C-alpha cells in the first residue's frame, strides 16, 4: 500500500499545459507494475492507454530494440525498409487483408483511411465523397479526425470542421441504410469496432455483419478503426474477427509497437491500390526502429499465447467485477471483451483516478462516467484478481456517497 502523504506535485513551467495530469511522475516499470519517482508502486490497469501490449521492460522486447537502435533507427522512405515488408506480411497474415501503409499514430492511420475513402470516390468520378460515421465515435485530434469524432468537447474551438461526414447512431442498421439513401455520395462507413473513448461501446456482431453486407451491396468501403481494440486486446488479433467479417480498411496504432509509436493502415483488395506514388507519405512512418517494435511485439504475442491470455484473464476480470459489483446501486454496467473493459457508473468517475492512484492502481476514466481497464496483455490471473481487489471497494465507497 502506498504512503498516505500526498507528494509535491511536479511542476512543468516549460511544457505546454494541454493535459490535466495527476500529481505523479513515473520513473520505471516491470511487467504490469510501475513505480513513481517517490518510490511508490502501482498496478497498471491502464497500459499507457491500451499501448503497452507487452507491459513494461519486456525481457525479449528490450534487447531486440537495443540491438535495433545500435544498428539503424531511421533512414527515410527514399529507400526500401526490409522490416516494413516483414511487418506488413505479418499484418496481412493475421488479418486476411492484402497490404499495409505505415505511419506513427492512431490519428495518422485514420487520416490515411480518410484519404483512401475520398480517393476511392474520386477514382469513380465522385468528386464530393462523404463518409458515414457514428455517435460516440473517437478517431483522433487532427482537424479531419476530430471532425469524424462525435464528441462536441473535442470540436469546441476548432471549427470550421472538415465536411463530408454523415453521423448516425451505432448498432442501428436501418439508420445506416436510410443515410445511404439520403447521401448517394457516401464512399465508406467508418467506425471503431469497439468504441474506446466513447465509453467501451461494442458494435454488435449482427450490426458489423450488416455493415459488411451493405458495403458490398453499395460497393463502398467498410473502414474499421481498430486503433484501440485491435492487436489482440479482445482475444482475437482484431475485434471484428469475432463477427467473422473482414473490413476493406483497418487503421491500427496503440498496441502495435508495445510503446514505440507505430501506426498502420491495413487494406484489403478493394482499397489497397487506391493510393498511388505521390498521393501520401510520412517522414518517420515505417522507420526501422518502429518496424522492429511491431515485428517483435507480434511475434512475442504469438510465442507467448497472449491472445488466449487476453481472453482468459479478461474473462476472469470481467467475471470478478460483474460478480463483486452486482446489485451495487450506482454501478450501471460492466461491459467489454478480453482486456478492454468498462465499468459505467451513474455519475462522473473522474475523481476515481486519484483515489485509485492513492490505492496503488492506474486506471482510466472515459466518457466521464466509465472506468476503463486496458492493461498489458501479459497480465496474469493473480494480477487481475489484485486489480479487482483494489478497484471494487473503491467503486463501492465512491458510489455510496451522495451523487454530487
Ligand atoms: C487513441 C485512438 C485514436 C487516436 O490515436 P492517437 O495515436 O492518439 O492519434 C484513434 N482512434 C481510436 C479508436 C483511438 O482509441
Question: How would you characterize the overall build of this protein?
Answer:
The protein is of the alpha/beta class. It folds into 2 domains: 26-58 and 306-400, Aspartate Aminotransferase, domain 1, CATH 3.90.1150; 72-303, Type I PLP-dependent aspartate aminotransferase-like (Major domain) (Aspartate Aminotransferase, domain 2, 3-Layer(aba) Sandwich). It is 35% helix and 18% strand. The protein contains 12 helices and 17 strands. It has a 4-stranded mixed sheet. A 4-stranded parallel sheet has the order 6-5-7-10, sandwiched between helices. The protein has a 4-stranded antiparallel sheet with strand order 13-14-17-16. Helix 2 (61-71) packs antiparallel against helix 9 (288-303). It is globular. It starts with 25 loop residues before the first strand and ends with a helix. Bound molecules: pyridoxal-5'-phosphate. The site of pyridoxal-5'-phosphate has 15 residues, from helix 4.
What's the short version?
This protein is α/β, with parallel strands linked by helices and 404 residues long. 35% of the residues lie in helices and 18% in strands.
The CATH topology of the largest domain corresponds to Aspartate Aminotransferase, domain 2
The low-pLDDT segments are: none
> End-to-end span in angstroms?
28 Å
Q: What order do the helices and strands follow?
A: EEEHHHEHEHHEHEEEHEEEHHEEHEEEH
CATH superfamily of the largest domain: Type I PLP-dependent aspartate aminotransferase-like (Major domain)
How many helix segments?
12
**What is the second-level CATH architecture of the largest domain?**
3-Layer(aba) Sandwich
The coarse overall form would be: globular
Strand pairing plus helix content: what structural class?
A: alpha/beta
Q: Tell me the Rg in angstroms.
A: 21 Å
| Strands ordered across the widest β-sheet | 1-2-3-15
CATH structural class of the largest domain: Alpha Beta
Helix amount, in percent?
25-40%
Amino acid at each position: 500500500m502506498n504512503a498516505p502523504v500526498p507528494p509535491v506535485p511536479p511542476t512543468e513551467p516549460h511544457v505546454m499545459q494541454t493535459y490535466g495530469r495527476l500529481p505523479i511522475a513515473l520513473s520505471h516499470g516491470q511487467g504490469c507494475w510501475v513505480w513513481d519517482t517517490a518510490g511508490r508502486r502501482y498496478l497498471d490497469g491502464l497500459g499507457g492507454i491500451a499501448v503497452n501490449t507487452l507491459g513494461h521492460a519486456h525481457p525479449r522486447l528490450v534487447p531486440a530494440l537495443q540491438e535495433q537502435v545500435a544498428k539503424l533507427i531511421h533512414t527515410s522512405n527514399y529507400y526500401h525498409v526490409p522490416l516494413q515488408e516483414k511487418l506488413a506480411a505479418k499484418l496481412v497474415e493475421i488479418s486476411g487483408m492484402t497490404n499495409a501503409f505505415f505511419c506513427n499514430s492512431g490519428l495518422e492511420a485514420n487520416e490515411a483511411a480518410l484519404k483512401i475513402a475520398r480517393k476511392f470516390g474520386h477514382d469513380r468520378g465522385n468528386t464530393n465523397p462523404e463518409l458515414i460515421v457514428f455517435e460516440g465515435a473517437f478517431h483522433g485530434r487532427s482537424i479531419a479526425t476530430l471532425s469524424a469524432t462525435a464528441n462536441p468537447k473535442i470540436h469546441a474551438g476548432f471549427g470550421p470542421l472538415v465536411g463530408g461526414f454523415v453521423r448516425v447512431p451505432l448498432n442501428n442498421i436501418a439508420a445506416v441504410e436510410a443515410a445511404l439513401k439520403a447521401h448517394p455520395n457516401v464512399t465508406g462507413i467508418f467506425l471503431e469496432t469497439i468504441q474506446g473513448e466513447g465509453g467501451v461501446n461494442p458494435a454488435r456482431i449482427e450490426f458489423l455483419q450488416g455493415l459488411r453486407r451493405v458495403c458490398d451491396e453499395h460497393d463502398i468501403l467498410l473502414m474499421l478503426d481498430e486503433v484501440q481494440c485491435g492487436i489482440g486486446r479482445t482475444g482475437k488479433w482484431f475485434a471484428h474477427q469475432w463477427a467473422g467479417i473482414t473490413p476493406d480498411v483497418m487503421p491500427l496504432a496503440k498496441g502495435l509497437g508495445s510503446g514505440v509509436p507505430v501506426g498502420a493502415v491495413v487494406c484489403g483488395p478493394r482499397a489497397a491500390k487506391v493510393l498511388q506514388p505521390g498521393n501520401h507519405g510520412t517522414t518517420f512512418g515505417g522507420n526501422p526502429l518502429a518496424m522492429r517494435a511491431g515485428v517483435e511485439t507480434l511475434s512475442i504475442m504469438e510465442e507467448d499465447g497472449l491472445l488466449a491470455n487476453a481472453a482468459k484473464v479478461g474473462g476472469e476480470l470481467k467475471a470478478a467485477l460483474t460478480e463483486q459489483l452486482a446489485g451495487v446501486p450506482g454501478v450501471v454496467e460492466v461491459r467489454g471483451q478480453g482486456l478492454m473493459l468498462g465499468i459505467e457508473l451513474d455519475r462522473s468517475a473522474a475523481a476515481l483516478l486519484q483515489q485509485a492512484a492513492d490505492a496503488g492502481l492506474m486506471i482510466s476514466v472515459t466518457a466521464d462516467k466509465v472506468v476503463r481497464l486496458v492493461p498489458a496483455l501479459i497480465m496474469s490471473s493473480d494480477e487481475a484478481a489484485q486489480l479487482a481487489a483494489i478497484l471494487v471497494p473503491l467503486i463501492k465507497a465512491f458510489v455510496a456517497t451522495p451523487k454530487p
